[in-house]
Amino acid sequence: MRPWFAQSLGEFRRQTPAQITAALAYQQAARFAGLEVQQRDSWEASAALLQDALAEGDASWHIFMECDLLRLEKRADAILLTDRAIFVLEFKMGAQRPDLTDLRQTDNYAMDLHDFHAGSRGVPIIPVLVAPAAPQRDLDLPLFWHGVAPVMVANGAMRRRPSRRQRYALNRKPGRVPPIAPCQACWRQRGFCIGATPCPISAPHAPMRIT
What we know:
alpha/beta
């Protein structure tokens, strides 16, 4: 896994969205000729939204931005590695209602990790399509996670009023439940399987839920 930006959540929260955007812009300049203003604004808005949404998250979680998915030749906007699951986050700024193409894109990114990234085997993967301009809605996480969950849609207020089972799933007390996700160093070092054959031990995933 080769993200353009990688930090613990504690480090991520100590930076400003402008600083995070500058780090991403530096990586962009090393690979491509220029940087569009729209892309810069999107990064800054995404970073601010993530900091707000994850204000109470565990400081040991890790956030990765602009993650290369080699088989698809695409980049996931952000991946959140927690000790309970991997969240694949795709941002659609300005979208009032994400369409089927957006949902499929988010699902494909999550499935690519699940099937072809060795470090993501056996770890629940939660694809989330973030559309800040969409109408307010609750982010209803499943209680039991296995394989790839259905695509969920969240807006800019996704952090508010978490349900009881969300808190149980995400905010476990240390020492009570052992972590099921790999450490970030191990996860980043693992590569993608070559070719079109999924990695072994690939559990079936739930069908994509369109809401």
